[in-house]
Amino acid sequence: MKLKITLAALALSLSPALASAMCSSMKPAQTASMCAEGQVWDAATAACIEPVSS
Asked: Signal peptide location in the record (predicted)?
């Protein structure tokens, strides 16, 4: 019985750390396909920008 309680306590104490580690790496990288309409991808800054017209 003590083994089951110990394992349950261990699992409950590790679950927040595991969930935090999994969520922190889930941010998607921004790409050209994610730019809003009228914006273009700038490879130098790795971001969407308004196009400069001359």
From this structure: 1-21
Name every residue whose Cβ is closer than 8 Å to that of residue 26 and which is 6 or more positions away in sequence. none
What's the maximum distance between 2 C-alpha atoms anywhere in the chain? 77
* Helices (H), ranges, the chain: 2-24
Q: What pTM did the predictor assign?
A: 0.39
Can you read off the two tokens belonging to residue 5?
A: 């309680």
Task: Report the amino acid identity of residue 23.
Answer: C
Residue 35 structure tokens: 């730019």
Please report, in tens digits, the pLDDT of each residue of the chain (54 residues total).
899 999 988 888 877 776 766 665 555 566 656 788 888 888 888 888 898 876
How far is CA 47 from its chain centroid?
17
